[in-house]
Amino acid sequence: MTLDPRLNPYRRDIAARQLQGQVEAARFVDGTMYEVIEPIADLRREPAHEAALDTQAIKGERVTVYEMSDEGWAWGQLETDGYVGYLSANALGPVGPLPTHRVCVPRTFGFPGPDIKLPPMIALPMGARVGVVRETGRFALNEFNWHFPLAHVAPLAKRQPDFVAVAEMFMSAPYLWGGKSSLGVDCSGLVQLALQLAGHACPRDTYMQERALGQPKSLSELRRGDLVFWKGHVAIACDATTIVHANAHHMMVAKEPVNDAVTRIKRDGSDVTSVKRL
To answer: Mean pLDDT, to the nearest integer, of 184-191?
Structure first.
């Protein structure tokens, strides 16, 4: 069986040592762990800024790097969902202390002091991990003394009770293939973000999600939280008649009647392939 190169770090010239005996490569190497230090780091299919965007890594995420090129590209594997690709080496830094909190709103700011009128030092997307060293008043402070609104971060152990409500926070966020933030998100990225905030492990791509998540149900028994899959697309049921999804028809995250979406997508040649209940 051929291993999926999107989830297994191997190329003809180099591969992770743990894959020795399973794949062919000119050399096998041990990886080095790094941490994403930029708010959002693009993971691309090839080492070029114009290459396809496969997904994005968020600040605080760990990456096992197997190669650093002279051109400033790191080839490695994301810890969260196992995705493999190329990131800018400038987006990575040494592994720091374990974070304590994550951003639980679509976007927040870190201010240099306890005053929201100050120009922010950083803007972080949902899912970004921060180390909170203390809380004071309305703010959580990290090791740089940046002040994040306390209501915008939550302890890593805290689980959002309703992942559908998390997805609904992204209403009108622009559609971006491979995107995973309120600046741009795709259908499977929206599902992954929402489920991760609710404490559910979730693979990155639609076909992986359809295969790994939930139990099969019928469209006629749809209820809140069900995932509706088409070939290459996924939506989240808000209730028995409405879905929310990042989609290229609206070019944003939008709600619409499920029957309208089924009819429209069927005109494009795709039927519902499954409904999954977590």
So the answer is: 98
- Does the pLDDT of residue 1 top 90, yes or no? no
Q: What is the DSSP string of 209-228?
A: HHHHSSEEE-GGG--TT-EE
Type and span of the H or E element at 92 = strand 92-93
DSSP structure class, residue 17: G
What does the alpha-carbon distance between residue 174 and residue 183 come to, in Å, rounded to a whole number? 7
pLDDT of 2: 87
DSSP 129: E
DSSP code for 5: T
In order, the DSSP letters of 145-208 are: --EEEGGGEEETT---S-HHHHHHTTTTPBB-TT-EETTEE-HHHHHHHHHHHTT----SSHHH
Pick the range with the lowest mean pLDDT from 25-29, 206-210, 266-270.
266-270
In the three-class reduction of DSSP (H, G, I as helix; E, B as strand; rest coil), residue 39 is classed as coil
The set of residues, in sequence order, having a beta carbon less than 8 Å from that of 98 and lying 6+ positions away, is 131
Residue pair 229/222 in contact (Cβ under 8 Å)? The answer is: no
In sequence order, the 6+-apart residues with CB closer than 8 A to the CB of 217 are 226, 275, 276, 277
